[in-house]
Write a structure and sequence with these properties.
about 290 residues
Length: about 290
């Protein structure tokens, strides 16, 4: 039986929404945030490498290989690390919402570096994102720590997530994404290695780490890319924006995290701005896996 394309996109959004919850669970078991990021890169990279080997996907070479390695440092080491640090500092729901500042960063970088037009839609979305962050900062919530560190790590994760736009625009049309991640994720793991303090882990921690790699990194990509082949990009982006909603609901159920009404309004502005810019945010439209 063929699974409907919207169901595949929704599945990917749910799997990405699990990322902060699983990361917080691993951290509660004694695993540091950077170690969570390290194992996500190692285990996810192994899955992508196996995928690339089975499908005989061509790996980047020469200059493309060096650029991909650089992307691995920024798009994996920094992104994965700051996202988990944001989860520890502010909570899973806050980290997931701040991740959706990425499209605003994309619009600003496109204007600053690619000479792309900053039209009314982009200006409204950027202003909405800034206002949303302000409301989240003022609102806070139960079990949510809106501290300077939480905001800084969350916004850094959103910024490095936005770098997938620049990289993806140049490479996702030339190489299979699995082949690119088979290189970028191991490089990202090496970048995290000197900063990682390894701790003894109970079986439950390994279960959370394995679930992050398998479900929130590898399978989320497969579901999204499969759905995207049969669904319009804009509609897929709208469905995928349910990710922070899933993260917030699970955080409320499992960790008693609840954004205040004011902060929820700010979160709605941030996600709304991301939806407004969905036409200019091609990373997930091209099936970028494990970037959430």
């Amino acid at each position: 039986m063929r699974v409907p394309a919207p169901a595949l996109i929704l599945c990917a959004a749910v799997l990405w929404g699990l990322l902060g919850i699983l990361g917080k669970s691993a951290q509660a078991a004694g695993v540091g945030p950077l170690e969570v990021a390290f194992w996500r890169a190692v285990l996810g990279g192994a899955l992508f490498a196996l995928h690339a080997a089975v499908t005989r996907a061509a790996l980047p070479r020469g200059r493309d290989l060096w650029i991909t390695a650089g992307f691995g440092v920024l798009g994996v080491s920094v992104f994965y690390g700051t996202y988990q640090l944001a989860v520890r500092a502010g909570g899973a729901s806050l980290a997931s919402v701040l991740l959706y500042t990425a499209p605003a960063f994309v619009a600003l970088m496109g204007w600053a570096f690619l000479r792309e037009r900053l039209g009314l839609r982009e200006v409204v979305a950027v202003v909405g994102t800034l206002l949303g962050i302000a409301l989240i900062s003022l609102g806070g919530g139960q079990g949510v720590q809106v501290t300077p560190a939480a905001l800084a790590f969350g916004l850094c994760a959103g910024f490095t997530y936005s770098l997938y736009y620049l990289y993806g625009k140049a490479f996702f049309g030339r190489y299979a994404p699995a082949a690119l991640y088979a290189v970028a994720l191991p490089v990202g793991a090496l970048g995290l290695l000197p900063l990682t303090d390894f701790a003894p882990k109970p079986p439950g921690a390994w279960l959370s780490l394995g679930a992050i790699a398998l479900f929130s990194t590898y399978l989320a990509y497969l579901a999204y890319s499969a759905g995207l082949r049969r669904l319009e990009a804009t509609r897929a982006s709208v469905i995928a924006s349910l990710e922070p909603v899933v993260a917030a609901l699970l955080a409320a159920l499992l960790f008693a995290e609840r954004l205040s009404p004011l902060a929820l309004g700010g979160a709605a502005l941030v996600v709304g701005a991301a939806l407004l810019l969905s036409g200019a945010w091609p990373v997930r439209r091209r099936g970028a896996a494990g970037v959430s």
